[in-house]
Structure formats: structure tokens, C-alpha cells
Amino acid sequence: MSNLPPTxxxxxxxxxxxxxxxxxxxxxxxxxxxxSYADEVVAPLKAAVPADADLFxxxxxxxxxxGLARFPLFAVRSRAWRTDRPTVxxxxxxxxxxxxxxxxxxxxxxxxxxxxxxxxxxxVLPCLSPWGYETINRWNPDALDPNRQFRxxxxxxxxxxxxxxxxxxxxxxxxxxxxxxxxxxxxxxxGPAKAARDGKAFDWHAIPDGFYLVGDSExxxxxxxxxxxxxxxxxxxxxxxxxxxxxxxxxxxxxxVINYAKRSLGLCGGMTAxxxxxxxxxxxxxxxxxxxxxxxxxAVTVTAAIAYLLQANA
Length: 314
Fold this sequence. Notes:
This protein is an alpha/beta fold. It has one domain: Aminopeptidase (3-Layer(aba) Sandwich), CATH 3.40.630. The chain is built from 10 helices and 10 strands. The strands form 2 sheets. An 8-stranded mixed β-sheet has the order 1-2-4-3-5-10-6-9, with helices on both faces. Strands 7-8 form a two-stranded antiparallel ribbon. A hairpin with a 7-residue loop joins strand 1 and strand 2. Helix 3 crosses helix 10. The protein is globular and about 55 Å long. The protein starts with 20 loop residues before the first helix and ends with a helix.
């Protein structure tokens, strides 16, 4: 897949003019189911839940008003929840098309949850955007990016339901790891679509080959981010900066790390006051990476983050 700027306008809308209802409907009509949330996420999740965890439904994502399906949303929580332990939140699939964010969370639940359930309280939401998972999409059916809608009175049900779940389950959060990918389709499809939707020019940046992290500019925690990069470096390669010392237009603060203002941007990583927060960005389109390697990178990040939290609290 090309990592070059698009040479033709996005096929919906008029360049320079933001979309209206007709353009959003035309965009939605182009979307198709490509895989099954029930088969690839829900069934494996139910099979993976360990004995020391509770699986529960935290809401229904209902798009029947658009002629689409209803999706049950699931989370996994430590059964032995104790107020004297730190609390860890893991989220995946905010962008449904970012496969290892979902599958990496499922892998971590199956292989690592029980190893850590005696040291920390755990809440894992493995797939916030099931329609996006099924259609391999960044947006929800309303052409909204859930990862810009983590704010009061959110118009995206994916974001609003996740925030309500976290608020109900966790009086406080000490660590939040949000699992994402950066893919070539960010340049070939989703970036151009966003520019067309907003009536703006596409701000193109080369997709970096490798793993990187997005910290919070208000809570950068450089030593924490550095520890995670060191752990992931053992399983996949770390993205190098471009000729401007940047990754996707943002200056690197250290090897493999950039920072965003998560709260003001409405990002998932900004929805709590956690002391430590990071967003993973796996690169599944690398010619040297496999799906298994991408899933492992996600799982390794969560495990390394918990280790760092426990050491910091010691």
C-alpha cells in the first residue's frame, strides 16, 4: 500500500466545503461488514476470562436508527477489587480498524490478567468500537472519530459509554494504557476522508515504520515512557523520526515517544486523572512485522506499564 500523498480528491463532497447530511450518508453507504465482532472478539473474550475476573456488559451500542446492528459492549474487571491497590485501566479498539489494539487486549487478558490481579485492580475494555471493528473503520457510523470525543456530553456513544463504565467501576485510576495502531490506511483513506469531511486540505505526513508511544503533554512521565519503549524493543522495532525529528508531524521527545494534549483533544487517554498514561501505536503494515508480533507488542506494553507502576509505588 502506498505511503505517498493522494493525487486525487476524496470521492465524496466538494473540496473546501464541509460535509452535510447527504455527504455523511454517502460515506456510510460505502461501508461494508468485513469481519465479525461476535466471532473474533466476543467469543474469544468469553473463552479467555480467567477465574479471578468478572466479565460484564457495560452498555449497548445501538445503531438501529441507521439500519445497522446493536452491539453489546464488554469489560473485564478484577473480582477481588481492593481500595489499597493501585488501579489499572486498559482500553482497546477505540479505533475499530486497529486490529492489534483489540487482539492484543484479548491476548493480555488470556495470558497476563491473572498474573497481575493480586497486585493491582484491573479494568479492561478490549473493543470500544465494534462497528468500526467489523467495517475496519476509524470512525463510527456518524462519521465521528471516537478518539476525539472523550468529553462531557460526547456525541459518540462509543466514547460516552466507555467513560460511564470507567466512572462507575473505578473511583480513581493510577495507570491507563490505550492500545492503538498507525496504519498505511491513515494516509490512503482515513486522513483524506477527514480532510474532505471538514472541508480542509489533507495534512499529509509519512507513516513511520515501527512502534511508538503517545504520552500526554500534561503528564509526560518520560521515564515511564522510556521503560515501555525498552520493553517493546525486545519484540518489535521502534519508529525512527523523519528528517525533521518528528513522527506524523509531532516532534519526538525521546526515542519512540511523542506527546499530545490528550484532554483538550478529547482523546481516550485523557479521560482519567491517571498518574501514568500512554497510547501505543503499533505499525502492522511493516514488511518485517507479523500480526502475532503486533499483538505481542501491545501485551508487552501493558505488562511493562504495570511493572513500572508497582516499582514507582514501592
